[in-house]
Amino acid sequence: MKKMIVMLLVAILALSATAFATTYTYEDDIRFEYDETAFDITMEDHTDDEDLIILIAKDEAWGETFIRIHLADLRDGETFPTMDDFTAMPDARDLTQGEWNGFNDVFMYSVDNEANGFTEHYFIAPVMDDDGEVDAILTVNIGVSPIEDEDLAMTRDDLISAVLDTLQVDD
Predict the structure, then answer these.
(1) pTM
(2) In a 3-state reduction of DSSP, which class is residue 166?
(3) Which of 6, 82, 138, 159 has the smallest number of CB atoms closer than 10 Å to its CB?
């Protein structure tokens, strides 16, 4: 019975979060919906070729929770990283390459940030131009603190997944 009540509360939270979702578009390149009741948004425009959007959790129970979305055009002579580039990183763990969120050849890995007490998950995706050539690199970095309460952790992770599921890039 207790588990059923918790599941009902999670469903109510998910439905109420959907009602407050805001669609965010930046320069027609990055589009996503985020739950403004759970995240604050900041944005930095580095150059004409780079955009950085940061979503930060408002909920203190989640600890340090953020999503960084960084889109950068490839510079002349620059290429998309290879598996060798990532395997050379000493702190990266669980390195895989595959499909993620509609992108192909995405590198995914995690890094434990012991100084801040949280884990960072990275998704490095190639963004193709109309000719099928890699034109830009999308880096999504998610930072989460460990949470003892499994239901609260699941709610946080579901909210992060919902934001990432809506992410679209047109470079």
Answers:
(1) 0.78
(2) coil
(3) 82
